[in-house]
Amino acid sequence: MGGLRLYFCLILHISVFHYNDAVVKFANYYTHHMVLQKAPAQAHIWGTGGAINQSVIVVMDGQTVATPAANDAGVWEVLLPATVEGGPHTISVTSNGTTVSLRDVLFGDVWICSGQSNMEYHMNKIRNYSALVTTAMQRNNFRIVRLDHNALNRSTNEPAIVFAWQAPDRDWQTDKFSAVCLIFAIELSQHVTQPLGMVETNWGGTPIEAWSSPEALAACPQQKKKRAIDQNLPSVLYNGMIAPILPMTIFGAIWYQGEANAVIPHLYACQFKAMISDWRAKFHQASKNQTSSTFPFGFVQLAPFRNKTINAGFPDIRWAQTAKYGYVPNPTLTNVFMAVAMDLPDFDSPQGSIHPRYKEDIAARLALGALGVAYGQKNIDYQGPFPTRFSHTGQRMTIEYDNGNSDIAVRTINGFEVCCGPTESQVCQATGWIAAPISEHGPTTVTLDTSGCHGNNHIVAGVRYAWEESPCDFKKCAVYGMGTNLPAPPFVKEAPF
C-alpha cells in the first residue's frame, strides 16, 4: 500500500517548475462531451495551474461543489458529488481569476478497452460498419476517446491522445475506433440505460508485460529484459497508456490480448492474474478509493489463427487466461468474465487470419458476460456448457455438462482427445494425445469412444477438448448451449476423474 501512495504522489506532485504560473486547466483527458462515472461512486477529477496553496473553486451546474487547495506544484484534485446517470452537465474550475469549463458532460459507466491488435481493430474494417455506426449514433448516450501509442520508461501524468471525447459519428475518429469496444457498448445499451464512456488504450502486437506495472511483474517469474525502449518492453505501455488515467474513476475494463505471449505461454496464468489485481488496486488508490478495488474485468479468450493442426501456444494461453480453471469467474479470477472465440476462424481475413473480422460475435458474447457479472442481471445465461462430471467404463467415457441442468447441442463428433497410459497416474505430456470422437450424446452428456487407449496403455489418464490453435470451422465446434448457441470453452482434465 505504501508503494501505491508513493506512486500516486509521483503522478500528482509534479515539479513546481512545470506548473508554476500556468493557467488553470483540467488534465487533458477531462474534456467536453465526456462521460464521468455515475453514483454511487464519485467522479475524481484533477488539473493543474491552480494558484499555489490557494483554493480552486469547482462549480457544477451553477452550484459550488468543492474548493480544494492547489498543492505546491499547482495541482488540484476533487471528488465530485455522487451524481445519478444522465446529463448534460457543465463543470467549471476557477483559480487566480481564470475559469475553464467542461460542457455536455454525462454521468454513466466508464469502461477501459485495452490489449493488442484485435482490440485495436478498427470499426471501418467491420462488414456492416455503416449500420453499426448508425446504431451507435441513435443511442445518443455513447462517448468515445482514444489514447495514442506511448511507450515510456517511466510513468507520465497525462496520456497522449489521438482524439478527445466525442459522440460516435460518421467521421475518421469513429472509423478508427476499436470495433470490439464500440460494439460492446452497443450490445450493453440494449440492456442498460446509463451513458457509456469508452476509453480505447491499446497497441497491436504487444505482450502483457508491456501493460503490467513493475509491481505486477515482480509477482511472477520474468523473462530476460532487453535494454532498448520499444513498445514490447516491460511496463512501457503501462507507464504511457495506463498510469496516466489511473486517477479517473471507472466502472470496468475489457481486454483482448494474448497472441503476443503464445510463444511463452507458461508464464501467462500468473502474469494475467497479477496484472488484473494490480490494475484494480492502482485504479482504486489513484481515484481516492472511488473505482472499485474489484472492478469488473472482461477478456476475449483467443480466437483461431492458422488453418492447420497446432496443439501448443494458443490453447495454452486460452487455458492460462482462465487461471487453469477453464471458466470464469472462479476463485482465482473473481468478478471476471470472458468471451469464448475459438470457434470464430477467419482464414481469409484481409488483415490476416490472426485478425478475424467477426468482432460482432465477440463483442456480443463479451457483453453477455458483462451483463451477468458486472451488472448482476438475473436470468442471463452468459457461459457456454462446462463439464462437471466424468465417468469411464470400458472403452467409453461419458462427460456431463453443467450438472445436468442445461441442454447441449452437438455440432460435430470431433474435438475431444485422450491421453493413455498403463495407470491413471500417467503424466500427460504435450504430445501423445489421440482423438476420442463422440459416439453418442444425450441432452446434457457426450460419450466418447476411448478405444484408442489399448494394450499396455489401456487406461485413460487425461481428456481434453478443443486443444488446438484453430479447433473447428466457423461456429462448428462440438459442444454448444442448446438455448444460447454459446460454445463450450476448451478444457483439460487429468485422472482421477
Give the fraction of residues assigned to helices: 10-25%
Total domain modules: 3
Report strand %: 25-35%
Q: Using the coordinates shown, work out and report the CATH topology of the largest domain.
A: Rossmann fold
As residue ranges, the low-confidence spans are: 1-20
Return the CATH class of the largest domain. Alpha Beta
What coarse outline follows from CA principal-axis ratios? elongated
List keywords for this structure.
497 residues; Immunoglobulin-like; Rossmann fold; 20% helix
Describe the structure.
It holds the Pfam family SASA. This is Sialate O-acetylesterase domain-containing protein. Keywords: Hydrolase, Signal. Residues 109-308 form the Sialate O-acetylesterase domain. It comes from Dreissena polymorpha. There is one protein chain. By secondary structure, this protein is α+β, with helices and mostly antiparallel strands. The protein has three domains: 14-105, Immunoglobulins (Immunoglobulin-like, Sandwich), CATH 2.60.40; 107-374, 3-Layer(aba) Sandwich (Rossmann fold), CATH 3.40.50; 387-494, no CATH class. The chain has helices at residues 2-12, 16-19, 117-120, 129-139, 172-175, 179-189, 214-218, 236-242, 268-286, 314-321, 359-374, and strands at residues 25-26, 35-37, 44-48, 57-60, 63-66, 76-79, 86-95, 98-115, 142-147, 161-166, 196-202, 252-256, 297-300, 336-339, 387-393, 396-401, 408-410, 416-421, 434-435, 438-441, 445-449, 459-465, 479-481, 491-494. The strands form five sheets. Strands 2, 4, 5, 7, 8, 9, 10, 11, 12, 13 and 14 form an eleven-stranded mixed beta sheet that branches. Strand 15 and strand 16 form a beta hairpin. Helix 4 packs across helix 6, helix 6 crosses helix 11 (359-374) and helix 9 packs across helix 10. The longest helix is centred in the middle third of the chain and has 19 residues, at 268-286. The chain is elongated, with a radius of gyration of 25 Å. The two termini are 42 Å apart.
